[in-house]
């Protein structure tokens, strides 16, 4: 399908453009020959250029050239200079008839051009040209041309004095009248083709923007329109397509236009390759710095002469190109498929931009090709970029569809695709009854942290393949994907698979499931370990589900929960099983409603420096007054983690904490930080960091205003994904604390690899430190470990003066607990912080 689309697009855009360029090759060579050449049979032309550092007038200038009192300079390599330049052109008509000539001054960016003709040694000023000269026609502004009529076998000398703030590069071509018309028509055709392509691309990308609301297309419109105006300055056609005053301003600010192109190049590349703050933070940060640098350079260029602005621009342009090329290479290596078109588009652009810059600096030879190299290369670039945009759009849509229907890590069809398949089966009515079988890998949460992602993916695919093969040997399974190794397997969540079975033979189904259960545990050999895995099976038939297809998948998952509660490997959901569904669902539902009704609340417990007794921060603690008999926060947080509500809970906590922090700063000058508990599920989420960043931006707060406390978790010490996620939070500016240290089994290697800044010692160790020698030694060792790694050591559960004294003696940095201060509402915290910023109980000196 895509092949045909790409072919059609190439036929509509690329092929005509290639044919246009190819058919123009010979024509361009002919165009160069239209001007009077050195060996011309009917006309002789001499052209010399002189630098004017003495402020000579025309008469003195001409007199000194006749005496050979001036040294000519290379007329095609004048570069940038504050000096004026004189061009002396002598045209001799060798024919026996009067001939009209056109002298073309092929640099419409020259500010002022004074034209003098010489008659019998008398130098006469005849006209003035240049893009800043008032009272000139649009045609002369777009392409400065001087008309010269010479009698038979006569000659005429013309002096051109040029003054500009930009490039003094001034190719001068002499044409006979008929040849000039052909030349001008060819140039106009190229201008029209280029303007037409740009306008076509502009409309095309605006349509794409209206359809998809993706900022990328607006940025590309800005990019190509900036190029349109910049090349309009270089070639002069701006005076035809823009108001005269606007075209003159653009001509005076060509360096600013080049900076604008650089700006849109960076922004477009960032959007094109989806460089995001949360995922590609370093590249994103460099791009932001470059954007500021480009905008600042453009602003400075408005106020300084072009001869000074141009070298600065070339340096910044090189830096910009190096950065964007590095991004392209990186993304290409990451397998971004549409990157190839972007790379291809840059090849002609870099060549054309290089030739154009070198031409105006007088480094490469002037001819029709080099004069129009950049314009032609931009045409090619737009065609290839349009292909890249089309390919990117196609792949993005395909990726969005794939991601919506597949697990992002393992690639299995997800619960959404499974439910769609179940619904389509019910609508088609091909089967009177069918069943869904869910299989959960036991202790998956304990196993997965120890394995690298690739190894874990391999393991899950082997498990899925084994289960599918066993079921398919006696049952008919519905295919979910035709090109997958386990094409009937869906992953409902990590470690839980599901299968659709067409059979309604309950005896056969139970027999097969019992055989599957009896085949457990099964051993899998990996590179790093040998694992024996057991599975729990839940199943439900359509006939047992009152709401039909709407609940069959959930009922099979509930079968797993009920099996676990009954310490069984299999549970077949039946209608009467509905009453057995435990309290987890009730708690999760109540918690979700409490979030929507804003019924949760936060309290704050001060964290105090044990050096000077000053409050340096507050820990944010979550509370929920409920009628479900839940005694502690840990109980409903565990349910939130099991049911997928935890991220919503954490988002609610962070939003409220931000609002309260603003109040504390405004009303009692609080300068400390807030410590917030986050779940490992939050850290591993692909969206939680983005939410935190957006919330900080909304409230104009900074990441270092917060410390994220992550509870030590068995098995996460070797999880590379978890480590990478923590580093991303740390790189953005959040400080990370390990909570309840000493309760798990963290190693020194784990601590040194993780980007922590605080080590929060488990409260049970603090509580027992006065009565238990072992706890004292663990506490001392924990403080020493923290200091050796340059972490701050925090002691929680400080509930007596004696404990506080001991903590100070062993060098603990921070303390919190009931002896220091109880958790307070925001109003109580405001009152306490307003009256004192030190420990308010019996403090120890």
Automatic annotation (TrEMBL):
Gene Ontology MF term list: cyclic-guanylate-specific phosphodiesterase activity
Pfam family, one: 7TMR-DISM_7TM
UniProt keywords, alphabetically: Membrane, Transmembrane, Transmembrane helix
Keyword Transmembrane tagged: yes
Residue span(s) of domain EAL: 584-837
Transmembrane regions listed in the UniProt entry: 189-210, 217-237, 249-266, 286-304, 310-329, 341-363
The organism's place on the tree of life at top rank: Bacteria
InterPro entries: 7TMR_DISM_rcpt_extracell_dom1, 7TMR_DISM_rcpt_extracell_dom2, Cyclic-di-GMP_PDE-like, EAL_dom, EAL_sf, Rev_trsase/Diguanyl_cyclase
CDD domains: EAL (cd01948)
Chain segments annotated as coiled-coil in the UniProt record: none
PANTHER family assigned to the protein according to its UniProt record, in alphabetical order: CYCLIC DI-GMP PHOSPHODIESTERASE PDED-RELATED, CYCLIC DI-GMP PHOSPHODIESTERASE PDEF
Name used for this protein in its record: EAL domain-containing protein
């Amino acid at each position: 399908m895509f092949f045909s689309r790409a072919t059609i697009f190439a036929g509509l855009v690329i092929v005509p453009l290639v044919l246009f360029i190819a058919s123009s090759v010979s024509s361009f060579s002919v165009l160069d020959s239209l001007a009077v050449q050195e060996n011309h049979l009917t006309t002789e032309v001499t052209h010399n250029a002189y630098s004017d550092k003495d402020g000579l007038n025309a008469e003195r200038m001409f007199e000194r050239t006749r005496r050979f009192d001036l040294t000519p300079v290379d007329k095609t390599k004048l570069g940038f200079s504050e000096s004026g330049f004189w061009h002396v052109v002598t045209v001799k008509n060798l024919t026996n008839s009067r001939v009209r000539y056109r002298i073309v001054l092929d640099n419409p960016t020259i500010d002022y051009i004074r034209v003098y003709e010489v008659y019998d040694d008398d130098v006469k000023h005849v006209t003035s040209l240049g893009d800043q000269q008032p009272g000139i026609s649009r045609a002369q502004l777009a392409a400065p041309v001087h008309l010269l009529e010479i009698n038979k076998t006569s000659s005429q000398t013309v002096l051109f004095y040029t003054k500009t703030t930009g490039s003094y590069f001034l190719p001068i071509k002499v044409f006979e009248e008929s040849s000039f018309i052909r030349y001008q028509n060819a140039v106009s055709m190229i201008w029209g083709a280029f303007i037409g392509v740009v306008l076509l691309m502009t409309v095309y990308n605006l349509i794409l923007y209206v359809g998809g609301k993706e900022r990328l297309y607006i940025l590309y419109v800005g990019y190509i329109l900036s190029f349109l105006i910049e090349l309009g300055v270089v070639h002069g056609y701006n005076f035809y397509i823009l108001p005269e005053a606007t075209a003159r301003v653009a001509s005076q600010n060509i360096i600013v236009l080049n900076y604008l192109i650089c700006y849109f190049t960076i922004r477009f590349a960032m959007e094109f390759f989806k460089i995001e703050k949360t995922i590609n933070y370093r590249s994103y940060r460099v791009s932001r710095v470059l954007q500021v640098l480009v905008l600042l350079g453009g602003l400075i260029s408005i106020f300084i002469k072009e001869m000074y602005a141009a070298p600065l621009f070339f340096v910044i342009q090189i830096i910009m190109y190096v950065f964007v090329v590095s991004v392209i290479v990186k993304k290409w290596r990451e397998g971004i498929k549409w990157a190839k078109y972007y790379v291809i588009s840059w090849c002609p652009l870099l060549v054309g931009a290089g030739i154009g810059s070198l031409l105006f600096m007088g480094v490469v030879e002037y001819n029709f090709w080099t004069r129009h190299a950049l314009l032609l290369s931009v045409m090619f670039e737009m065609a290839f970029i349009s292909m890249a945009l089309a390919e990117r759009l196609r792949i993005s849509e395909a990726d969005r569809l794939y991601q919506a229907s597949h697990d992002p890590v393992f690639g299995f069809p997800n619960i959404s695709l499974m439910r769609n398949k179940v619904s389509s089966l019910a609508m088609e009515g091909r089967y009177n009854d069918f069943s869904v079988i869910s299989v959960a890998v036991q202790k998956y949460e304990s196993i997965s942290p120890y394995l690298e992602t690739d190894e874990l993916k391999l393991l899950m695919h082997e498990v899925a393949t084994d289960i599918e093969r066993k079921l398919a040997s006696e049952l008919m399974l519905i295919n979910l994907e035709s090109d997958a190794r386990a094409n009937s397997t869906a992953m409902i969540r990590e470690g839980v698979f599901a299968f659709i079975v067409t059979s309604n033979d309950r005896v056969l189904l139970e027999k097969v499931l019992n055989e599957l259960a009896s085949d457990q545990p099964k051993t899998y050999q990996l590179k790093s370990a040998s694992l024996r895995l057991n599975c729990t099976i839940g199943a439900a038939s359509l006939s047992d589900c009152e709401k039909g297809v709407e609940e069959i998948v959930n009922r099979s998952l509930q079968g797993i929960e009920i099996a676990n509660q009954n310490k069984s490997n299999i549970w077949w959901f039946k209608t009467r099983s509905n009453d057995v569904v435990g309290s987890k669902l009730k708690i999760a539902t109540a918690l979700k409603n409490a979030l929507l009704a804003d019924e949760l609340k936060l309290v704050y417990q001060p964290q105090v420096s044990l050096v000077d007794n000053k409050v340096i921060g507050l820990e944010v603690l979550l509370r929920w007054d409920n009628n479900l008999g839940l005694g502690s926060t840990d109980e409903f947080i565990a349910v939130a983690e099991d049911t997928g509500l935890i991220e919503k809970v954490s988002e609610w906590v962070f939003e409220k904490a931000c609002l309260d922090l603003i109040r504390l700063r405004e009303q009692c000058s609080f300068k400390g930080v807030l410590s917030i508990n986050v779940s490992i599920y939050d850290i591993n989420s692909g969206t939680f960091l983005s939410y935190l960043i957006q919330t900080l931006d909304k409230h104009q707060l900074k990441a270092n205003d917060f410390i994220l406390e992550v509870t030590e978790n068995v098995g996460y010490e070797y999880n590379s994904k978890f480590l990478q996620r923590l580093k991303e939070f740390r790189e953005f500016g959040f400080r990370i604390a390990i909570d309840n240290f000493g309760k798990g089994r963290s190693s020194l290697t784990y601590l040194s690899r993780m980007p922590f800044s605080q080590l929060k010692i488990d409260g049970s160790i603090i509580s027992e430190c006065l009565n238990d020698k072992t706890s004292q030694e663990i506490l001392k060792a924990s403080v020493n470990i923290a200091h050796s790694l340059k972490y701050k050591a925090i002691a929680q559960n400080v509930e007596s003066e004696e404990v506080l004294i001991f903590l100070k003696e062993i060098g603990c940095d921070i303390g919190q607990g009931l002896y220091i201060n109880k958790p307070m509402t925001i109003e109580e915290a405001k009152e306490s912080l307003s009256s004192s910023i030190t420990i308010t109980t019996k403090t120890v000196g």
